[in-house]
Design brief:
Layout: E1 2-3, E2 16-20, H1 28-42, E3 46-51, H2 56-63, E4 68-70, H3 83-107, E5 111-114, H4 120-128, E6 133-137, H5 146-153, E7 161-164, H6 167-176, E8 184-186, E9 208-213, H7 222-234, E10 239-244, H8 252-264, E11 271-275, H9 281-286, E12 289-292, H10 302-309, E13 314-317, H11 320-326, E14 332-335, H12 340-352, H13 354-371, H14 374-389
Parallel strand pairs: 1-4, 2-3, 2-5, 3-4, 5-6, 6-7, 7-8, 9-10, 9-12, 10-11, 12-13, 13-14
């Protein structure tokens, strides 16, 4: 790993791709940029990844022999859309402009692949440097203000190729900025499954085991799962909840509030917090039902697909890209977002018809594996990048 300013240009006739991504964690979009970079490399591209900070993603890229350069550039967040935030954004943009241009000059990429709409500076950097841009959209702020949606979508117009991870994401971008209409291509996420499928339990002896995997935040609705557990206990159902995930830096107060909620509801013995885990499969093996409880729009639902791949019945918020990710599977149940009672009802439905849901989940695992093939995803992304490299600048 290097900081911007090193001299690592490798081009032995291969297409050189500079991949820009806003974080170095290993949640949904981070996993997808990893698969994108690995796919480009396997298809013969010379790949360099730039992220603002170090983290688990950097380690995973290193395992695959993909170099990473740290180059801090501003990530567009709601907190920056204020007078004080605008000053921070301006300062970070100036520093990012200098570092980003230096990075492009050093590595001379044939293509810049921007793995987000929250890094608008990279679209400008690539355009200034006359480099083709492939944009890959993993966000869909359909419930955000018109101003924010337009601000996020407009830089996409600078890209020669625009990939999106769902029809919902495409619709949000097109409605936010009309010049994008007809220019977006849907490539569904490739999602890796477990090393092997461990079938669900035949009988639910010893109580029902629920699992939540994902970021811990108000937006993701993990507290809705806690509320549903309390409701189910009041109804007399023996049930527990495992929570796998962590808060983002600066949101520690939410985790404190979540622990307080667990204590107030008398659920300390029924809920286990496991923090961030690099592998979720051991937890899915032990689970009976997975819950995806997002309150607001999601561009897609990798966690929902991972549950299906592991052959676990799934209860998911009936909204946006989550609906698209989980539709067409008999082992999936949809509930209204932010509705504790409906979530508890759905758990009881699965509990009452466990043998059916168990069988459907095993069938659905094969369907999900075919639909979200990693190989197909990697080839599709690599093809877009290679075609962009041959396009006029």
């Amino acid at each position: 790993m290097e900081r911007a300013g090193g001299s690592m240009h490798a081009n032995n006739g291969a297409v050189t791709v500079l991949v820009a991504h806003p974080s170095a964690e290993l949640y949904g979009s981070d996993k997808m940029v990893l698969e994108s970079a690995v796919g480009m490399s396997r298809e013969g591209c010379s790949v360099i990844v730039t992220v603002p900070t170090t983290g688990p993603l950097v380690e995973e890229l290193a395992v695959h022999g993909i170099p990473v350069v740290l180059c801090p550039t501003p990530v567009l967040r709601k907190s920056l859309l204020s007078p004080r935030g605008a000053l921070v954004l301006l300062r970070e943009s100036v520093a990012g402009l200098v570092g980003g241009l230096r990075l492009i000059r050093q590595h001379r990429p044939d293509v810049v692949y921007v793995s987000t709409i929250t890094l608008p500076l990279w679209f400008l950097l690539a355009k200034i440097s006359r480099r083709p841009i492939v944009a890959h959209v993993h966000e869909a702020e359909g419930s955000a203000s018109k101003f924010l949606r337009t601000a996020l979508a407009a830089p996409l117009a600078l890209a020669g190729s625009i990939l999106v991870n769902s029809r919902f994401s495409a619709t949000v971008q097109e409605q936010a900025f009309r010049p994008l209409q007809g220019r977006l291509k849907v490539v569904y996420n490739g999602v890796a499954g477990p090393p092997e499928i461990v079938p669900p339990r035949e009988a639910l002896t010893g109580g029902l085991k629920l699992l939540y995997v994902g970021r811990l935040s108000h937006r993701k609705g993990v507290d809705v799962a806690v509320g549903a557990l309390a409701e189910l206990r009041r109804r007399g159902l023996e049930v527990s909840l495992d929570i796998v995930g962590a808060v983002f830096p600066g949101n520690e107060a939410f985790l404190d509030g979540l622990h307080a909620m667990v204590e107030q509801q008398g659920l300390a013995g029924d809920i286990r917090f496991h923090g961030y885990q690099s592998s979720i499969w051991p937890f899915l093996e032990q689970a009976d039902i997975c819950v995806v409880t997002s309150r607001f729009d999601e561009p897609f639902g990798n966690t929902a697909v991972e549950s299906l791949l592991a052959a676990r019945p799934l209860i998911v918020s009936d909204t946006s890209g989550l609906r698209e990710a989980a539709e067409g599977y008999r082992s999936s149940l949809f509930v209204a977002p932010d509705n504790v009672s409906q979530l508890a009802d759905a758990v009881e439905v699965v509990d009452a018809a466990w043998r059916d849901y168990r069988d459907w989940a095993l069938e659905d695992a094969g369907v999900a594996a075919a639909k979200h093939s990693i190989d197909a995803y990697q080839r599709a992304v690599a093809q877009e990048v290679q075609e962009a490299a041959g396009a006029p600048r």
